């Protein structure tokens, strides 16, 4: 990934400053905000690979940590209310940036960050043009699921029986444009050859074909 460079930014989110990496192509088609509860997730090689693949498809990408290093704990990584507030603050920051104005905004969630993406999308409604949720703990946002209006793609590994069952239940509860893709031959880690690339291609296609094509500004 030596040819893939970011701009490092700090985003004021409530009582914290969130570290983030932003990359914007010359003519962006939209902006994908990653929702990941792990600290230093913006530097995770899987996330960076997915971000690079989406960027090659013309998407601006914002990789932001939802927690600071001091906040990193099992409790906070499962504090969906806190993660949701951070994700909404990050989304509002993105809509206020001159080089991102007018773009459709999408969420790409993983793990407990999926629950935050669902909660934030339920609150922001049509401000979020689409969701891709990989290996998601959707069970941690049960109340938000029926409220989602954004086109939602669920991606889960066939070998992860727990998350497969959880996502199948979630799929039935969604009342929006939706799709569930079960990737054969992998767990939630998608470490097997070609599996992460498959996820990236699924995400790029979903974002490109989501029904909400016009961005709606958010007030900071």
What would your notes on this structure say?
The structure is a single chain. Helix 1 crosses helix 6 (195-209) and helix 3 (80-96) crosses helix 4. It is globular and about 40 Å long. The chain is an alpha/beta fold and 220 residues long. The longest helix is centred in the middle third of the chain and has 17 residues, at 80-96. Mean pLDDT is 91; it is low at 213-217. The protein has helices spanning 45-56, 74-77, 80-96, 112-124, 161-173, 195-209; strands spanning 7-13, 16-23, 30-36, 59-65, 105-111, 128-136, 152-157, 178-183. Helix content is 34%, strand content 26%. It has an 8-stranded mixed beta sheet with strand order 1-2-4-3-5-6-7-8, sandwiched between helices. Helix 4 (112-124) links the parallel strand 5 (105-111) and strand 6 (128-136). It has a single domain (7-209), classed as 3-Layer(aba) Sandwich (Rossmann fold), CATH 3.40.50.
Overall body shape: globular
Global structural class: alpha/beta
Taking all residues together, what is the mean pLDDT? Answer: 91
DSSP helix fraction: 25-40%
């Amino acid at each position: 990934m030596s040819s893939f460079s970011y701009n490092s930014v700090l985003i004021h989110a409530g009582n914290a400053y969130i570290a983030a990496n932003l990359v914007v192509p010359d003519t962006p088609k939209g902006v994908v905000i990653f929702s990941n509860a792990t600290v230093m997730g913006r530097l995770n090689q899987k996330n960076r690979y997915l971000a690079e693949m989406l960027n090659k498809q013309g998407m601006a990408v914002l990789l932001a940590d939802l927690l600071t290093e001091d906040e990193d704990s099992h409790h906070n990584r499962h504090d969906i209310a806190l993660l949701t507030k951070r994700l909404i603050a990050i989304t509002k920051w993105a809509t206020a940036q001159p080089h991102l104005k007018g773009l459709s905004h999408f969420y790409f969630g993983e793990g407990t960050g999926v629950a935050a993406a669902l909660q934030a999308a339920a609150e922001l409604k049509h401000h979020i043009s689409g969701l891709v949720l990989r290996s998601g703990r959707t069970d941690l946002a049960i109340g938000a699921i029926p409220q989602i209006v954004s086109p939602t793609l669920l991606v889960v590994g066939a070998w992860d029986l727990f998350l497969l069952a959880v996502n199948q239940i979630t799929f039935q509860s969604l009342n929006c444009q939706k799709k569930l893709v079960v990737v054969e031959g992998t767990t939630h880690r998608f470490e097997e050859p070609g599996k992460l690339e498959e996820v990236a291609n699924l995400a790029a296609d979903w974002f490109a074909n989501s029904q909400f094509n016009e961005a709606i500004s958010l007030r900071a």
